[in-house]
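Input/output pair, single chain:
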Amino acid sequence: SSDVCSSDLIGKVKDVLINGAECEPYITGDHRAMLECPEEIIGGATYLAKMFGVDKVIIGVEDNKQNGIDAMNKVIAEKKAPVVVEPLRCRYPQGGEKQLIQAITGREVPPGKLPADVGCVVMNVASVAFIARYLKSGKPLVSRSLTVDGSAIAEPKNVRVPIGMNVGDIIDFCSGFKAEPGKIITGGPMMGLAVINTDIPVLKQNNAILAFADDASKVKKERDCIRCGRCAAACPLSLMPTLIERYTKAKDVERLEKIGVNVCMECGSCAYSCPAAKPLVQYMRLAKQLLREEKSKNA
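Output:
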């Protein structure tokens, strides 16, 4: 995170938060890290407490990962570390940066602002564990853990792979496909991106490879909006996805900016809840692209 690298934050940060919510379905890499290397997570968090000069670091973990919470609390007790594990309600998208800050501190990050603006720094469990490994060995980030899962994968598992490794080779390591994949996704089922083939590299931000058989990846036929309001009710950032869709089709850049489409974190809650099967996340991304193009024209 660029926030964490900035020396300007030292002394100004009130809360250092570690994101262990891992709220997307299928993905379990952070959960395995809590169980298999809690010492590294707590060690990295202890360093962050010292670096930012705070009394404690708070690790937010959804309450469906009780064994991970217990494993970290055991290490905290043994090392008397300045770290607190905060159990959070299990709901999506609890792992969103702004949602995590509000759940733990009660503070809201204003639109267009960063966590630092409300005195917070947020890091991921895997990043904190890497800090501990780096300080011990000096080895840079050359590999990462990710989840390989889905109804088309023969042997779902969590693996640690070199960054840049071919996705197809990783799937082969998991015994390949047990059924013809209808959709392959890099990332989670809610926020991930579908790919057309497996001849692509793993990037440092990838946390999962999911492959679904045809029966689990059928796209529903899009129908007309019935104005039920479910998308707006599901949006964690209180946006109006149906309005954004309308203004995007009309290419009304001024109104798109006014209703705050750039605030959208593309969590997919609106599309998941829509009974008309509208691809609302795609409209969000298209709207942001329209805004970027407009700004580049005026630059």
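Residues 1-6 have pLDDT under 50 and may be disordered. The longest strand covers residues 143-149.
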